[in-house]
Structure formats: structure tokens, C-alpha cells
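Shape matters. As here.
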Amino acid sequence: MAGDTEHCYDDLADYYDLIFENWEASMARQAEVLGPILERASGVAQPVRILDCACGIGTQTLGLAKAGFKVTASDISSRAVDRLRVEAARRSLDIQSFVANMLNLSVVPDTDFDAAICIDNALPHLDSDEQLVAALGQIRSKLRPEGLLVASIRDYDRQIEERPVVQGLAFYDDQDGRRIVLQVWDWIDDLRYVFHLYITHETAAGWQVTHGAAKYRALRRDQLTEALNQARFRKVRWLLPAESGFYQPVVLAEADEG
């Protein structure tokens, strides 16, 4: 997971909010969907203690913290974590944050979290089944017995068959200026592709292009379910967008009591 993933999100950290039509609204909307899932499935009254182990610049972390959850955050990208800290301070939110690879969460001092989240297709950055199981084991080690993992991935069951090469050409014109957002997928083989994100935005000096690239490994839902079982999670269940209201398939799993 190190290397290109880290550099990709370092490169994008200052501009990643521009991929959203309205970042503040996206934070609130995601918190409105994920919050009730976390409360119901964890069985804990507020404040639910959450570890966001792929926090990026804070889209889920900030929204959930503002909604009253106690969130600790970590990410492989130091510049993304720096951006999160700035955004948390602007909103007067108390969020502990750490630079940590999901393959080694020992830098996060706390344990016994009620829940962990890994949202927006972060797990498919892991290069192999072995790395995936190892990362899930690290996440489980941070949860209390029967603690909850909530993760989301792209709908790879469909996309593996379709093999899309372009995603989401969007044009926005608002208080942040005019910008164009485009994803290009370069498929390496049947399961692996390089994701390119281009953010072209208007500045006082003219148009500027920001580009980040990272590898993904397309994961079917049954593959992730098997990895969760190997990492000693149980009661694995999937919520598709029509049921959850979230834009990606969401998986819920409980940490084994042992």
C-alpha cells in the first residue's frame, strides 16, 4: 500500500475537496447515512468511539465528529492528515489524528474502539489477499470485542465485467471557481488498474491541472467477505446502495470476541 498510494494522496491533499460539487454538503450527507448505521450496528449510545483508518482529508471524519461521534483518524498520507488537522481546527472539532499505514496501526495509541470505518474504496489499494487480511487484522486489533467495522468499496462485481476506462467527467462552477474533475482507469490485467484523478481548476494565473495516480485491485464482495472471515471478523453482511442510501456497497462485520 505504500509508495504510489501515499504519494498520490500527498499530491492531491490541497485540492481533494474540489472533486465534490459541495464538500460541506457531502460531509453532512455521508454522516447522515453512516451515523445511523454506526449507532444501530454498534449498539452503543452516543458518543460512539470511531477509528477512521483511511481518513484522507476528512470527509467522513469531519462529518461524523460534527454529528457528535468521537472520532480518531489515521491515513497513510501525511499531507492529507495535515489537511484534516487544519480543517478540524477551523471547525473547532477535537479529533486526534495520526499518519499510519493500515498494515501497521500501532502508531494509533488507543484501542477498544466501538467501531472502525474504512470508506470510499480504500481497502482495494492493498496489493494482495495477504495484505488485505493483514490490514483487516490490524483494524480488528483496535476494536473492542464485538466492535464494528464499516467499509465501502466500488461495485467491482459489476465493474470487473464492464472494465470502465473513464469515470465521472464533471464540471462545477461555484464559490471555489470553475473546475473539471475526471477519472481515467488504466487496466493492467483483469483485476488491477491504475487510477488517475485529474482536477483542472481555474486560478488567478489561469487554469491549473492537479494529477494523482495510484493502483487499485478490484475486489468482489465475496473476496472481501472471505478476507474478513480470515481476519476473525464475523456476522459479515452487505448493504447495497438501494438499502443503505450510500453511494457504494457497504460491508459491516463484527470483531471476534477472541
The chain is about 35% helix and 35% strand. The helical segments are 4-12, 23-42, 59-66, 78-90, 129-141, 156-162, 221-230, 241-244. The domain at 4-156+219-255 is CATH 3.40.50.150 (Rossmann fold).
